[in-house]
Amino acid sequence: MTKISQRRALLLAAVVPALLIAGCSANTQAMKGAASPGTPTDMDSMSPGTASPSDTAGGSQAESAVQGYFNALKSGNLDQVVSSFADDAVVAVDGQATAEGSQAIRALFQKLQGSQDMKQATHTIDQSRTAGDQDAFVRSTSKQGDDDYRELFLLSKDGEEWKISQFMNNQAS
User: In which residue ranges is the amino acid composition biased (Polar residues) (predicted)?
Assistant: First the structure.
């Protein structure tokens, strides 16, 4: 396992359980047309050094990277969607096979691109945090047609740019 893969696995192990708990309590937030900063949640009480609030430069930049992904989806710009992801990213979209790597991600979003619901979707960024200076996560909710989705993005720095390294979504109950 590479150092990057180990770092991502540790980040997932530390973040996902807390996000699931926080996400369940935050599910009542109204959907908005454009992404906006989330409100503080139980994640604010994490131990020092584990994560930084979203008002830090890294959290805001990671949030901007996710907003760029959402904008690319809405505009139907497949190249921009794919460039939002790291070359070795993993994407797990509800109801689809997991896509690993740029070519598989391109094929997945090419398949999904024709959906009118995706182009008219609304997205709300509920929370963004940095984990050190190289990793961040963003939790969001989206409404596509009659369906509500929860999304979790793990991001890593690629030079000075934030790239999505893992993306997962599922339908909210």
Answer: 38-63
Percent pLDDT > 90 in the chain is 55
Question: Where along the chain do its domains lie?
Answer: 3-26+54-171
Torsional class of 147: left (φ above 0), alpha (ψ -120 to 50), beta (otherwise): beta
In tens, the pLDDT along 59-86 reads: 789 999 999 999 999 999 999 999 999 9
The answer to whether the CB of 88 falls within 8 A of the CB of 99 is no
Q: How far apart are CA 66 and CA 153, in angstroms?
A: 8
Q: How far apart are CA 53 and CA 57, in angstroms?
A: 9
pLDDT at 157 over 70: yes
Distances (CA, A) of 93 to 105, 137, 145, 159: 10, 17, 16, 27
Q: Which residues of 140-169 are buried (b: 16+ CB within 10 A; e: fewer)?
A: bbbbbeeeebbbbbbbbbeeeebbbbbbbb
Q: Express the helix, strand and coil content of the chain in percent, nearest 5 each.
A: 40, 30, 30
Q: What would be the CATH architecture of the domain defined by 3-26+54-171? A: Roll (3.10)
Note the maximum CA span of the chain.
44
